[in-house]
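Protocol step 4 of 6: record predicted structures for both targets in the notebook before any analysis. Target 1:
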Amino acid sequence: MKLIPLGGSGWMVPAVAVGCMRLGELDGAALGRFIHTALDCGATYFDHADIYGGGSCEEHFGAVLQNDSSIRREDLILQSKCGIRQGFYDSSKEHLLEAVDGILSRLHTDYLDVLLIHRPDALVEPEEVAAAFDELAQKGKVRHFGVSNHKPMQIELLKKAVRQPLLVNQLQFSLPVSNMVANGLEVNMETPGAADRDGSVLDYSRLYGMTIQAWSPFQTPSWGGCFLGDARYPELNRELDSLAEQYHTSATTIAAAWLLRHPARMQLITGTARESRLREIVQACEVRLTREEWYRLYLAAGHPLP
């Protein structure tokens, strides 16, 4: 497994993290096998959120940890997210503390390695976030912190009060959903991709040493499904299949390798509950696309070059 530094901490973590949103689909035995497959692949980083399955994904995962003595907590990196409630967002101190206690209880663990604020809260008070983070760190409940789906100025606002380094920002990114790249390439143009929808978050992350965790790495725009094998993306799938044949691997592996090739050294968050798919994604760590191949895929996904 390829390792990358998480933020500016110098802490080296797997470049592929296991997204746990769909793991609630598996029964106990199947989930146990899936976790063991991940660990065998070196995918020791597991990304949860308290809203996944209404908490059931964490509960099922925690039950496996509790009942399978061959899985040691110290061999896992557990991350979770909180701040989304039914119909609104809440990053108040009271809710953050309560949410983390719930996460720890469901996962049957004493601490989280990483906690992220899941979505920006329009009513955020940085001092409350800071107070919550301080208490969680002092009590040993959370070791590291970050955010998810935040723009640079929202991060700067939090940093006004928060003392702990914000190591990561989890953002949607895939071949078709790549405005983070497009708005930089199409700068000063009137093309659709020139619109800066995220405050130049990609450049910001590279400048300030935040790791981008790419979620839904195989998703099409507007939640249109997976682009792999999708008839709406014939050129992209032809290029993926051609490179897969060249590298003796799968289209899934090549699509993941495209993301991992970016010099920002992103961490890919998987979203699969299938062991075979997980193995294909992890294999991307062994493929380094050339610059020309990277751009070929980018263009095939429908993005122009000015």
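Target 2:
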Amino acid sequence: MIQVKDQIYHLGLRDWELRSFHGHELSTFNGSSYNTYLIKDEKTVLVDAVWNPHSKQFMDILDKEVGIDNIDYIIVNHSEPDHSGALVDILERRPDIPIYCTAKGAEIMRKQFHKDWNFRAVKTGDTLNIGQYELIFVEMTMIHWPDSMMTFVKGPNVLLSNDAFGQHFAGASIFEDENDECVVMQEAIKYYAGILTPMSALIKKKINEVLAMNLPIEMIAPSHGSIWRKNPLRIVEKYAKWSDNYDEGYVSIIYDTMYNATKKMADAISKGLESKGILCKQFNSSLSDMSDLITDIFKSKGIIVGSCTVNNGYLRSIAALLDEIKGRKFKNKVGAAFGSYGWSGEAHKKIHKELEEAGIKMVHEPIGFKYQPEEDELEACFQLGREFSSYIK
């Protein structure tokens, strides 16, 4: 048990071996953590739990450090299994413990665990006095589940933010300022890009709502990754930027290829962009981690996607990529499509259509060339890059 601030403790677990999350949807190359918090006031409050594969270890910690019989209240900020799984073991022994959560959280847990525990539904602005401290609840609906909320501990002024402001990261310390800050911030933007991007409009609105509450936040303690204690509002400021049609002004060129014809086209497009002073990055989608690709797309102003034609369509890694782009609902980005083919030549046209349907503003007609591109065709790719650059500056 590690002290976070006055009478608030970290009981969580660091999962050093974790390499994927949400099944195999998200990569977690730096592991992750399940941050559970304990508040020891006149009442003893447990805030969130851990994923059920780690339940036995967590129960051992609770028995040693707290004692199940000493827990007065449980706060469930979010009912997703990585935060609520161990509740089953806790409540088998103490089914009477009041659980404070949103109404939607109670509904989800009834369906998830098939138990009708002692739920106490709360909404934004509701409070719970636990002695010296007061808990203030803030709903975070659809950030990123319907039941999500945050709990502010008035007194020590710690915001227990659950998934908001978190990272999939297991560090030597539980505090951001004692870890590599560059790695922590990269994992924070990867977390936002991979999970929260579709909710950006809601996040922008909610940040303004929370700031208007004038909570004197001195520390932000999420349920994954590092706790923000050095100027903690800077991660809130980052979320405000990330939720507002964010980009870093470069272009991501993403392609898959069989015999390097499409790769040669990508190389030529890159040279065209660079000739106009535009920064760009190239990715072979079949060799790239999808979560990292989505993060780079999130940070890009422009997206140029290419594939050779196979079975009247595009290669499978590009199919997966386009599906991911569509699901993320990116805003204010420009795009183009390209590809090579042997006889039918549909890939570049279909990529163009898919990107357009995903909300990407297509600023160039799709280009495609047969077999290995000749010099004049590579020159056309070069010119695509040069023309595309005018939409980036």
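Step 5 preliminary note on target 2. The CA atoms of residues 208 and 285 lie 37 Å apart. The mean pLDDT is 97.
Proceed to step 6 after PI sign-off.
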